[in-house]
Specification:
Layout: E1 2-3, E2 10-14, H1 42-50, E3 52-53, E4 59-62, H2 72-78, E5 83-87, H3 93-99, E6 116-119, H4 127-139, E7 144-149, H5 155-168, E8 172-175, E9 179-181, E10 184-186, E11 200-206, E12 208-211, E13 216-218, H6 221-226, E14 232-233, E15 246-251, H7 256-259, E16 262-263, E17 270-271, E18 274-278
Parallel strand pairs: 1-3, 2-4, 2-12, 4-5, 5-6, 6-7, 7-8
Antiparallel strand pairs: 9-10, 11-15, 11-18, 12-13, 13-14, 16-17
Helix pairs in contact: 1-2, 4-5
Length: 280
C-alpha cells in the first residue's frame, strides 16, 4: 500500500489535463502547461487508487475536465476510495445519474462542504443548464455546489448567477481569481515572493498528493503542469511517499495555486499547500 502521510490534507488525481473549454483565467495555463500527455487507462487508475491508504481523505478527480477521460465512469465504479469531483459541468447529467451513486462521493461534516464542485464559466457555461444540473443532482441525493471565479471580466455574470442560484436554492460561491490582470496580481498569497519571477533556491515541502494523468507524482502544480521533476509513480507498487523538504531552484516562478493563502477548515486560520524555506 502507498500510505499518504498523516500531515497531508488533499489528494488530487488529474485523470486528464485536456479540457473542452478554453478560459483566459484558467489556473492550469499559468504555467508552461502540457495538456496532451500519456494517460492511465481506467484499469490502471483503479489499481493505483485502490493501492492508496488515504487516512480517510477523499480522492479529488480533477483535470483539465476529468469527465473527458474515456474511462471516467469505470474508474468511479472500480475504486474503493470516496471521491470529490471538480468539473466544468459539461457532462451528460442523465448518464452520470445512471452510472454513479451518491455514496461513491465523500460526505463532509460541514454544511458548506460540496463533494461535486461545478465551475461556472461565463461565456461557455449556460447558466440555466448549470442550475438545472445542480438541482437534478440535489434531487437525486448528491451534494453539488457551483463555484465562480472573480476574474475582473466575470463580475457582472457572477452577480447575475448569484441571483439565479439563490432563487433556485443552489449553493454558489465565488472564489478569488489568482494571477495577473492588466499589470495587477490578484489573490492573497502566503509566499508572495514565489510569484515575483526571480528564480531563487529554496527547500519546499508539500501537504498534497498530486497525481498526473500518467500516474507520476509531483511536489507542486508547476512541476505537474510542465511534466518535470516527478518524485514517483502510483503504479509502482513499491513507491512510498516521502514527507520531506526537497531542494528547488525555481522559487519565484511558482503556480499561484501552490502559494496562495487558504482558509483552514475552522474558517478562522489560514494555511498554504506548501511550506517553503528560502536558501542561499
Amino acid at each position: 500500500m502507498i500510505r499518504v502521510p498523516k500531515r497531508y490534507n488533499y489528494i488530487e488525481a488529474y485523470l486528464t489535463l485536456q479540457c473542452n473549454f478554453g478560459c483566459k483565467w484558467c489556473i492550469n495555463a499559468h504555467s508552461n502547461l502540457i495538456r496532451k500527455r500519456k494517460e492511465l487507462t481506467a484499469r490502471e487508475w483503479i489499481i493505483a487508487l485502490n493501492n492508496l491508504k488515504t487516512g480517510g481523505l477523499p480522492v479529488t478527480l480533477g483535470g483539465g475536465e476529468p469527465t473527458q477521460h474515456p474511462g471516467f465512469y469505470d474508474i468511479l465504479g472500480g475504486v474503493r476510495q470516496k471521491f470529490d469531483l471538480l468539473t466544468n459541468g459539461s457532462f451528460d447529467v442523465g448518464k452520470f445519474l445512471k452510472r454513479t451513486k451518491p455514496e461513491m462521493f465523500f460526505k463532509g461534516s460541514k454544511t458548506y462542504y460540496k463533494n461535486i464542485r461545478i465551475s461556472f464559466h461565463p461565456g461557455q457555461s449556460d447558466p440555466d443548464n448549470i442550475i438545472s444540473m445542480a438541482r437534478r443532482l440535489m434531487k437525486a441525493g448528491y451534494n453539488p455546489g457551483v463555484f465562480g471565479i472573480n476574474y475582473p471580466e466575470n463580475l457582472h455574470s457572477n452577480n447575475k448567477f448569484t441571483e439565479l442560484a439563490s432563487r433556485a436554492g443552489v449553493f454558489f460561491f465565488i472564489r478569488d481569481y489568482l494571477g495577473w490582470y492588466k499589470d495587477r496580481l490578484y489573490g492573497d498569497y502566503f509566499y508572495p515572493n514565489g510569484l515575483n519571477g526571480h528564480k531563487k533556491n529554496c527547500k519546499c515541502r508539500t501537504s498534497e498528493l498530486l497525481i498526473a494523468p500518467n500516474g507520476n507524482v509531483f511536489r507542486c502544480h508547476t512541476d505537474l503542469y510542465e511534466g518535470v521533476s516527478d518524485v514517483g509513480n502510483v503504479l509502482n507498487m513499491g513507491y512510498q511517499i516521502e514527507d520531506i523538504f526537497r531542494p528547488c531552484a525555481r522559487y519565484g516562478t511558482c503556480n499561484e495555486c501552490d502559494v496562495k493563502r487558504k482558509l483552514a477548515p475552522d474558517l478562522i486560520s489560514s494555511r498554504c499547500s506548501v511550506e517553503i524555506k528560502e536558501t542561499p
